[in-house]
Structures are given as structure tokens and as C-alpha cells.
Write a structure and sequence with these properties.
Layout (H helix, E strand, L loop, with lengths): L5 H4 L15 E6 L7 E3 L9 E8 L7 H9 L12 H8 L3 H13 L8 E2 L5 E7 H8 L4 E5 L5 E4 L2 E5 L6 E5 L9 E2 L2 E3 L38 H8 L11 E6 L6 H11 L10 E5 L11 H18 L4 E6 L8 H8 L40 E4 L1 E4 L5 H16 L3 E5 L34 E2 L7 E7 L13 E2 L9 E7 L2 H14 L14 E4 L2 E4 L3 E5 L2 E6 L1 H21 L9 H6 L4 E2 L28 E2 L1 H10 L2
Parallel strand pairs: 12-14, 12-15, 13-14, 15-17, 17-19, 19-23
Antiparallel strand pairs: 1-8, 2-6, 3-5, 3-9, 4-5, 6-7, 10-16, 11-25, 16-18, 19-20, 21-22, 24-25, 26-27
This protein binds 2-acetamido-2-deoxy-beta-D-glucopyranose (NAG) (4 copies).
Length: 642
């Protein structure tokens, strides 16, 4: 961790025991289970060591966020498409003066003088330095040092903490407290091409022909079930080229993952000849990011190459913007991106959760020394991200806060898409949970256990995109449905342990339970029908031909599905803009109100956790959502709206 020096905090000091919380205090957050890779060290903390503490204040009006968003994105609303300015969003949600005063009074009464408080610009955070002794007394807790058993990293944490009951409603969460590190996982897999090694066709004037022998495979619509190309996707979803209309499409990548221009060129020369060699995304570097070329491997380049090659090809001649996020040392989280898009979400001088988010400037570990980007980037109309966590990796309060930020982006007219995961009902790396509701984030190897939903796919304010595949020897036409992806990867899907069901999907989920109730019990997943189901939609996720590190590979994953769906939304936005209308913004209410604009996927499943997972059925299902896009039908739905 960057936020305190462990050396300063260890030392010989008297042992102490926190007093039991007084009656007017309530436990605000509590860790139910110890994370397996962290072990508590039996050392005494130096009671005078300083901890930089941050209190995240609850924002106002969040309880109305859903209604505000429906007002601008429900197809039956008279305010459809009337998106908000970032300024209006900030004013609407910033914490009230009364909340700020109440929390500050508590600090002052606890001996943390006014002079020590620092407010963030957004007014969402109060920051101050406290000694271990002050922190324990303030929060009625005991702090301990934990060691990461994998990398030896040390971390300061407590197991629960309390705040006075009368101010609890004003506090989102406090750091550092119960939270632990989690890393963002990318979602894509590769399979090398079986016996036929794909080679690359030399194209005059495009790429250097010496590195690129003749391919033995001709890509065409007859072999889309083996090789997905941009042309296959256009045929499957019945769309054509982009236009030059004013629209925008952002693809998010996290350093050190990076695209190689040579790979983009190789892709164009094989699969998208009209795009000139050298065509790349518009690059927005966030928080000291670099599009690094120092290390090159499938892990370094596969995700970025895939996302950008397909996004660029499908919306061409429209430009794609790359949000390359995080430096090469700290890495970054979704919050670092969100900070760059919305000044009211970040705090100047740091303010993210040091446990999960990279904090810049990075003074401790040799990373980016500049200030974090804060509201410096105007969000694109569509933003696709192919990375994700397990819901159980992160505290619920952290997820709710981030999810509300996606709500704000929806208010601003942004469509936010996330891949739904590649392990079916299991989580990243195929792991399942050992406890009910995935509490505590303890995972097993995945042959049994509780289903492990992904985040942010379960946030009701994003559009979660699952994966399909062309049926074996299947004909590729817009009228021939695919099936759920069962090649190399399984479409992430299921039900949240954190988020309640949004009304826009209530009837679709109810129909699913009425007509196709799965046989699993509450031991495997929350079957209460009161929680968010995901994914919302799907698109092909198998056998993508992608140029990576100078060769064509086949790539699999909802990682592919999300940028493809995003490209289709971008093409719809172009047509709306050409018709003098706004971008579509938050998609889900319109999508669920128009299931007929999708090709329903009714075969295949998303196995995991020692089960066959859920099954794709008629109507919405937790494998492929509403189905795959039917572009002309979706276009006419969205063009008919104001
Ligand atoms: C906490 O202490 C550090 C190190 O002295 C200092 O840089 C920082 O500004 C302090 N933070 C606050 C909120 O006073
Ligand atoms: C799509 O782009 C290609 C290459 O520029 C062009 O040949 C083709 O006519 C375009 N198709 C449509 C429908 O505009
Ligand atoms: C594709 O869309 C066009 C309208 O743009 C429609 O006329 C055609 O029938 C569609 N093709 C299929 C196979 O559905
Ligand atoms: C399912 O979710 C609901 C709503 O959050 C909750 O009340 C219930 O306890 C959950 N059930 C289980 C078995 O976790």
C-alpha cells in the first residue's frame, strides 16, 4: 500500500484493547470472513504512527437516481434523450451542507480538530491524518497488519468499525478500514489455431510482406462458425459500414495492456482492406498511462488488439477513442477512469480507496508522479470495457458507490457496456464461492460451491454483454440464431448478491422464473427473484480472428462481445445524430421494452461450479440476456424515439 509506511507503523508499543462500542455507535462495515491470501500478523502497532484517513460522504438524492435516469432513458418518458450536463449532475448529488457539518462535528468532538480536516473539491470526501490510537478510538476498533501470503505486501486493516448512529446515514465508507486489494481481470482467452497455422496474406502497400506468408484459410461467410471476422458480424447482426456523423466510441484498456499499431495494420490488411495502414485510435492517456511496447505477449497485447481491431473495423470511418488508463507501476481501477470522466466523482489530491484504486501522484512506489486526471475527459457516447471483478472481490459499499457513478454517466447520455465474464456461473479464473452469498470472497477451485457473479455486470446501470457462438456448420444470416458460447469460454451470467432487481428487467426476469425456473436452490444463487439478473444482451464471443504480436490468432471471450455490441450502438448513435437527435445514453430500459429487436438465443448454457449453469431459453435468460442484436430492428426502435 502507498498510503502509509509499514516500517513506521510497526514497533514496540503497549498493547491495547479497543473499548466496546458505546451504545450510541453502530457497526458501519464488518468483514464476515478473512480473505484467504491475507494473514493477520501478530505484531503490535506503533500507536503514534500516522494514518491518512478518508471519509466518503453519502451523496444527496441518490435514492432518486434511478427515477432521474428512467426519466431520460425510458422509451415512454417524454424527456427521453434529454440528458443532463455534468454540472447539473454534480449539483444534484453532492453531499448536503448538513451532512458535512454533522460529520465534521463528530470529528471535532473526537479530538480531531477542524484545522486537520481537508475537504475534496467535490465535497464528497473529508480527509485527515490520525494516529493509530486516534483512529481506533474514533472508530471503536483495533487495527492490525496483514501480510499477503503471495507477494508479502503488507496492509493495515481492521475487522469492523463503528460510527455514531446519528451520522451513519451520511457516511458511505471510511478508509483504511476493512478493505483489501483486488485486481482487475481481463476477460479473453486464446486458442492457437489447431493444425492449420493461420498465415497472413501480403497486401501491397499495407504491411511489410516479408513477415506475412500466404494464409491457407480464406475467410468468408461460409466458415464464420470457425473464424469470426468483421464481415461475419455484419452478416450475423445485419449492419453495414459506419458514417462520418458526429458520434463517439470509447474503448477502455488498463496498462500494461496495450495495442500494437503493427497488429492493427496486420488486421486491416487481412480483414478490413479499406482501412489504411497506420489508422489507430485517438489516444487519451489517463493517470500517467502509456501504450507500452516494451513487453509484448498475448497477455500484454491480446485484449487491446482484439477490442480495438473490432471496434475500429465496425465503426469505420468513425474514429474510436482509446482510454488507456493507469501507469505501469500502480495499474489502475475502474474508479481511476471514472475520476477522469467526472470531476464530481474524484477528489483532488487523491480520494479514491487506496486499497483498490491507484492513487496518484504515486510518491511511494516509483509510479506516475503527476496528479490524477479528474474530469479532464469528456466521456464518449458509448464506452466499452472488457475487464471485470468478481462481485465478492470488493465490499458492497464500494460497488454501490461505483455503480451510482455509472448511473450518472447514463444521465449524461453515455452508454456504459461491460463484458459479463468468461466462466459461466463461476467467477474469474473459474472460481466459485465457499460461503453463502459469496460472503467474504473466499473462493474454491470451481468444481463446486456458490455461483460467483461478476462486477460491474451486476450493476443495474451498465449494459452487461454475454457471449454467443455460431452453431457448428451454422449458416451465418441475421435470421439464423446462434447459441450460447460453449467454445473455450462460457458466457458469464446469473444473479447479483448486491444489487436489487431494476424495474426495467422485472417482467423479463419474472417470465424467466415462471416459465423456466432453474432447479438450483438458494445454496447456489440468490433465487429470490428480487435481485439483478445479468447479462442484458449478448453478441458473438468465439473464434475471433485477431492479429496479436504479428500473427493471426483465434480469441474467445465476452471481451469480444462487448466492443462489438458497443460498435452497433455507435452506429445507431450516428443515425440518431444525423436525424438531429441525441445519443441513446442508458440502453437497458429501451432494450427490455423491445425484446423483438433481438434474435432470441434459446440453446446452450453457461456451466460452472460443478453444474451445467443456467440454460438459454425463450425470452431473457441469465446466459445470453435478451439475445443478439438485430441492427435494423434496434435502429428503428431508437430512431422512433425523440
Ligand atoms: C497527511 O500527512 C501527509 C504526510 O505528512 C501530508 O502530505 C498530507 O497532506 C496530510 N494530509 C492531510 C489531510 O492533512
Ligand atoms: C463499406 O466500405 C467498403 C470499403 O470502403 C465499401 O467498398 C462498401 O461499399 C461500403 N459499404 C456500404 C454499404 O457503404
Ligand atoms: C437486413 O436488414 C434489411 C434492412 O436493412 C432487411 O431488408 C433484410 O431483410 C435484413 N436481412 C435479414 C436476413 O433479416
Ligand atoms: C437474496 O437477496 C435478497 C434481496 O437482497 C435478500 O433479502 C436475501 O436475503 C437474499 N437471499 C439469499 C439466500 O442470500
Amino acid at each position: 500500500m502507498k498510503f502509509f509506511s509499514t516500517l513506521a507503523i510497526l514497533g514496540l508499543a503497549a498493547s491495547s484493547f479497543a473499548a466496546p462500542a458505546p451504545p450510541n455507535h453502530v457497526v458501519h462495515e464488518k468483514r464476515e470472513h478473512q480473505l484467504e491470501k491475507w494473514s493477520k500478523r501478530n505484531v503490535k502497532l506503533n500507536r503514534d504512527a500516522l494514518i491518512p484517513m478518508s471519509i466518503g460522504l453519502t451523496q444527496r438524492n441518490l435514492d432518486q437516481g434511478y427515477e432521474f435516469l428512467m426519466d431520460v432513458s425510458h422509451p415512454e418518458s417524454k424527456n427521453y434523450g434529454k440528458h443532463w450536463s455534468m454540472e447539473k449532475i454534480k449539483e444534484t448529488f453532492k453531499p448536503s451542507d448538513a451532512a458535512i457539518e454533522a460529520v465534521k462535528s463528530w470529528l471535532i468532538e473526537s479530538g480531531i480538530e477542524k484545522e486537520r480536516h481537508q475537504m475534496s473539491n467535490s465535497l464528497a470526501w473529508i480527509r485527515f491524518n490520525v494516529t493509530v490510537e486516534e483512529a481506533e478510538s474514533l472508530l471503536k476498533t483495533d487495527y492490525h497488519i496483514y501480510t499477503n501470503t503471495e507477494n508479502g505486501k503488507q496492509h493495515l486493516a481492521c475487522e469492523d468499525y463503528s460510527v455514531p448512529a446519528h451520522i451513519q446515514e451520511h457516511i458511505d465508507f471510511i478508509t483504511p478500514t476493512i478493505h483489501f486489494d483486488a485486481t482487475v481481470k481481463k476477460e479473453k482467452k486464446r486458442r492457437s489455431l489447431d493444425t492449420r497455422e493461420l498465415k497472413v496474406k501480403p497486401v501491397p502497400g499495407a504491411v511489410s510482406p516479408d513477415a506475412v506468408p500466404q494464409p491457407q484459410v480464406t475467410f468468408n461467410l461460409a466458415n464464420c462458425y470457425e473464424y469470426i471476422t468483421p464481415d461475419c458480424l455484419r452478416a450475423l447482426y445485419n449492419f453495414t459500414n459506419g458514417t462520418l456523423a458526429q458520434s463517439s466510441y470509447g474503448i477502455v484498456e488498463y496498462t500494461p495492456q496495450a495495442y500494437l499499431q503493427t497488429d492493427l495494420n496486420l488486421f486491416y490488411s487481412n480483414l478490413q482492406r479499406q482501412i489504411a495502414s497506420g489508422t489507430g485510435p485517438t489516444v487519451d492517456l489517463i493517470d500517467g498511462a502509456t501504450v507500452q511496447t516494451t513487453t509484448q505477449s498475448f497477455d500484454d497485447n491480446g485484449e487491446s488488439d482484439l477490442d480495438l481491431q473490432y471496434a475500429i473495423a465496425l465503426v469505420y470511418p468513425q474514429k474510436v477513442t482509446l482510454y488507456q488508463t493507469g501507469d505501469a507501476v500502480e495499474g489502475a481501477s475502474f474508479n481511476n477512469l471514472l475520476d477522469a470522466l467526472d470531476a464530481s466523482y474524484c477528489t483532488s489530491g487523491g480520494g479514491d480507496d487506496a486499497t483498490y484504486d491507484a492513487i496518484y501522484p504515486d510518491t511511494a512506489s516509483g509510479g506516475y508522479k503527476g496528479a490524477a486526471n479528474c474530469g479532464t475527459i469528456t466521456p464518449a457516447s458509448v464506452i466499452s470495457t472488457s475487464y471485470g471483478y468478481n462481485e465478492a472481490d470488493l465490499p458492497a459499499a464500494y460497488e454501490v458507490r461505483q455503480c451510482n457513478e455509472y448511473m450518472k454517466l447514463g444521465l449524461a447520455g453515455v452508454s456504459v457496456l461491460y463484458s459479463s465474464g468468461d466462466y459461466g456461473v463461476a467467477g474469474n479464473s473459474g472460481q466459485c464461492c465457499t460461503a453463502a452469498k459469496c460472503a467474504g470472497g473466499t473462493y474454491n477451485s470451481g468444481s463446486s460451491g456458490t455461483f460467483n457473479p461478476s462486477f460491474p455486470g451486476t450493476c443495474p446501470y451498465v449494459t452487461s454483454v454475454g457471449a454467443t457462438q455460431v452453431k457448428p456448420n451454422g449458416l451465418v444470416t441475421a435470421t439464423n440464431p446462434e447459441e450460447a458460447c460453449e467454445t473455450v469460454i462460457y458466457s458469464g451470467g446469473g444473479f447479483s448478491n448486491v444489487f436489487a432487481i431494476p424495474s426495467y428487467q422485472a417482467s423479463a426476469v419474472a417470465t424467466y422464473f415462471t416459465s423456466h425456473k432453474p432447479t438450483y436452490t438458494a445454496t447456489q444463487y440468490n433465487n429470490s427473484q428480487t435481485v439483478r439478473g445479468y447479462p442484458d444482451v449478448s453478441a458473438n464471443g468465439a473464434n475471433y480472428v485477431v492479429a496479436v504480436d504479428g500473427a493471426l490468432s483465434l480469441v474467445y471471450g465476452t471481451s469480444a462481445s462487448s466492443p462489438v455490441f458497443g460498435a452497433i450502438v455507435t452506429l445507431i448513435n450516428e443515425q440518431r445524430v444525423a436525424a438531429g437527435k441525441s445519443a441513446v445514453g442508458f440502453l437497458n430500459p429501451t432494450l427490455y421494452a423491445n425484446p423483438g429487436a433481438f434474435t432470441d438465443i434459446i440453446t446452450g448454457g453457461n456451466q460452472g461450479c460443478g453444474t451445467s449453469g443456467f440454460t438459454a431459453v425463450a425470452g431473457w435468460d441469465p446466459v445470453t440476456g435478451l439475445g443478439t442484436p438485430n441492427y435494423p430492428a434496434l435502429l428503428s426502435v431508437f430512431l422512433a424515439l425523440a
